[in-house]
């Protein structure tokens, strides 16, 4: 199945209503869209910039894991924002990015219920990861900004996927119009971002879509035995609440494994 590559003018034409996206650019290749927007932010770029690349050669995920995409097979996109809520609430940016991607994909999914989230922000289709997200704080002369990066597997074959627990839109039977996918993410991100700016959190909406809530979990922390328990919710900062045999524990970081998906 052929993937239609992204086009900046078409993306802009598909934006709905009032959004913060004032500058949408598409490039053929880059090392990292997050790094590029971060450099622009430090040079005075204002919020509302969007950078999309057809190829990313030096992307990074959580915990500094490397992430690269073959040409044209994935969407690498980053957004530049100047959030209004206080910095302790910025942990929600990655979470609302996951909500935005999952909302956009659910709109075009063969089965919308297959699209879920794993804490904090992995977007899953049928329990397999299709999108990774990384947000970063950038210090500029005018104050702090945030760069939120998203990488969506579009037309990767099963052999090209980095791990067996990943998938792509093509493998799951999704439409592969990359401009429409990017515009959908931007439209939903704008909606969730406005709600978060007003309320400071998105707990109810996130819990409704997050497959980690109610699931048997193993939370892996560096250098420690896994913590076993059941996902119970998220707190006002977006941290994961897990009911363990020793009581309720709260996690700001950690790799979460859904036991029922890996039994």
Structure overview:
This protein is α+β, with helices and mostly antiparallel strands. The chain folds into two domains: 8-208, Bira Bifunctional Protein, Domain 2 (BirA Bifunctional Protein, domain 2, 2-Layer Sandwich); 212-261, SH3 type barrels (Roll). 24% of the residues lie in helices and 33% in strands. It contains five helices and 14 strands. The chain has helices at 8-13, 33-42, 92-108, 178-199, 203-209; strands spanning 23-27, 49-53, 56-60, 66-69, 74-81, 115-118, 122-125, 128-140, 143-153, 216-220, 227-234, 240-244, 247-251, 255-258. It has a seven-stranded mixed sheet with strand order 1-2-5-9-8-7-6, with helices on both faces. It has a five-stranded antiparallel sheet with strand order 13-12-11-10-14. The two termini are 32 Å apart. The model has no long low-confidence stretch (mean pLDDT 91).
Strand content: 25-35%
How would a crystallographer describe the biggest sheet? 7 strands, mixed
How confident is the prediction overall: mean pLDDT? 91
- What is the CA–CA distance across the termini? 32 Å
Q: Using the coordinates above, name the CATH class of the largest domain.
A: Alpha Beta
Helical amount: 10-25%
The CATH homologous superfamily of the largest domain: Bira Bifunctional Protein, Domain 2
Name of the CATH architecture of the largest domain: 2-Layer Sandwich
What's the order of the H and E elements?
HEHEEEEHEEEEHHEEEEE
């Amino acid at each position: 199945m052929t993937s239609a590559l992204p086009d900046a003018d078409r993306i802009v034409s598909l934006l709905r209503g009032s959004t913060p996206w004032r500058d949408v650019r598409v490039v053929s290749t880059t090392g990292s869209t997050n790094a590029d927007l971060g450099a622009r932010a430090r040079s005075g770029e204002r919020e509302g910039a969007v950078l999309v690349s057809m190829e990313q050669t030096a992307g990074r995920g959580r915990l500094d894991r490397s992430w690269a995409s073959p040409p044209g097979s994935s969407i690498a996109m980053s957004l530049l924002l100047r959030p209004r809520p206080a910095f302790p609430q910025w942990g929600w940016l990655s979470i609302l990015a996951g909500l935005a991607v999952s909302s956009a994909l659910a709109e075009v999914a063969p089965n919308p219920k297959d699209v879920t989230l794993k804490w904090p922000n992995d977007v899953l289709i049928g329990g397999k990861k299709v999108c990774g997200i990384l947000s970063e704080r950038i210090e500029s002369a005018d104050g702090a900004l945030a760069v939120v990066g998203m990488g969506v597997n579009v037309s990767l074959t099963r052999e090209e996927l980095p791990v067996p627990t990943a998938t792509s839109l093509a493998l799951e039977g999704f439409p592969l119009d990359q401009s429409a996918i990017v515009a959908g993410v931007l439209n939903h991100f704008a909606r969730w971002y406005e709600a978060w700016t007003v309320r400071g959190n998105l707990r109810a909406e996130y819990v409704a879509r997050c497959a980690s809530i109610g699931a048997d979990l193993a939370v892996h922390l560096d250098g420690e035995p896994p913590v076993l328990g059941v996902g119970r919710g998220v707190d006002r900062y977006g941290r994961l609440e897990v009911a363990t045999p020793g009581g309720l524990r709260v996690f700001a970081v950690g790799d979460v494994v859904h036991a029922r998906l890996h039994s």
